[in-house]
Specification:
Shape of chain B: globular
Helix content of chain B: 25-40%
CATH class of the largest domain in chain B: Alpha Beta
Number of domains of chain A: 1
Radius of gyration of chain A: 18 Å
Helix content of chain A: over 70%
Structural class of chain B: alpha/beta
Oligomer: heterodimer
Order of helices and strands of chain A: HHHHHHHHHHH
Largest sheet of chain B: 6 strands, mixed
Number of helices of chain A: 11
Number of domains of chain B: 2
Largest interface: A-B, 27 and 27 residues
Order of helices and strands of chain B: EEEHEEHEHHHEHEHEEHEEHEH
Amino acid sequence: MNTQRIGAIFEKDLKEFRKNMMLLMMPVIPIFLAIMYSRMGEGELPVFLLYLIVGATYSAVTTSGMMTMMAEENEKKTLRGLIQSPASLADILIGKSLVVGLFTFISLVISLAILGNDEFLAFQPIVGLILLFLFFLLLGIGIGLFTKSVANTSAYIMPVMFLFGFTPMIEFLNLGEDSIAIKIADYFPIMQMIDMHETNSWTAIGIVAIWVIAAAIFTFICLKKVSTDN
Amino acid sequence: MENAIQVSGLRKTFGQQVAIEDVSFNVKKGEIFGLLGPSGSGKTTTIKILTGELKQTTGDVHVLDTDASSFDSTQFKSKIGILSDNSSLYERLTVYDNLKLFCKLYDAPLERIDVILEEVNLKNDRNKVVSKLSKGMKQRILLAKALVHQPELVFLDEPTSALDPGNVIHIHRGLQKLNEAGTTIFLTTHDMEEATKLCDRVAFLDNGKIQELGNPDELRFKYSTHDFHIETTMNEKLVLENDSKNADQIRDLIAAGKVKSIQSDKPTLGDVFLQLTGKELV
């Protein structure tokens, strides 16, 4: 790893992010949702709605942003130029992740500030939010590497958003408590975070960590595939 | 002279398809070496193997004393520059920002940007957004990107394609200057004039095999019929064998003032390739 190279990629991607309207609009989505929810009525918002905002931020900004940036590098063949340079894959991915992380952080902080909720300002939720960020980031890198064009990313972002970002919405499908879909969804990262929030359980954090490891393995496989075209 | 590139028994297959078959050649340090061949002959595959983008199926490949297994090392990547059909630019960024990125990635001083932009005739366009530039200008920025860190060895895949004649001359001068400064250049081209003008040695690649290798002038001489081509003042075209029995006829034509032009047969590299493979170099 080389800080100068990471810095160079961060600087380049920050400039690109600021000039890409599609990417720039993504951090606005959770903020817009937060404004809507904050006007829904008096009193505290239910926890699942808070995590819906978190899920929207991570899927729309982190995963979608990373996926779009990687897919664009693939589509325009610029990723090959970076790989051919002395920058390591770690330098490239960290540089990009810092840009996505910055915009995710700004979007999340503004959204939560609008909702006026300070329950996230504790050690356990922060650890959970960091793990959740890593999960969505790795998912974005992996799918982005795998995706050959920006147009294709929209086909992948929808399942990611609905499966992992908006998992609590499954409640609205009235599937019943015993539904196998509900039981599976309960193990999804956002649902585990809601469980952690309500029970202070570290087991939930452990399950989210397993999701992070699974996303890391998926990303590693995609990286191996893209690093050479033998 | 030391070798910059050593290739021995190189073979590359994609499934059942053989792309390169038993290719061996050396490129000396400080040399301009041209790999010539029609589309699909294996030129790009060879460059990809030499730059670590592809792994060979069998054979030994050494570039700048580095074995192919270490082509992904930072040290190796710092010593080479690549302009290939895969090279691309960040279209939303300016020319300067694109080169600044690669200066920083290669740990080269930022002062190099203006020097290299001067060499590719783009100094006045440094603050223009890449998406607004012509294809030829983009090609020149790609060349600048490949050279900005002053590599020891440069791989150029069709470096002057899409350039107008004026800029081709400018780029040729730049490459010759670069070579005089000690940089080894490995290039592929379809342009036979370019190969003849720039290359110290060329190799003809066809169906994944090297058909011939040597100095362009020597190859042209080797494959010449050595016949005399005479154009008379009556616009008559005569082809006479380079044989003593024709000496009197040539002398008589000259003595009678009937010779408009006379030259010995000297095929182009394209003609040589045609003789060797029966194919046009397109």
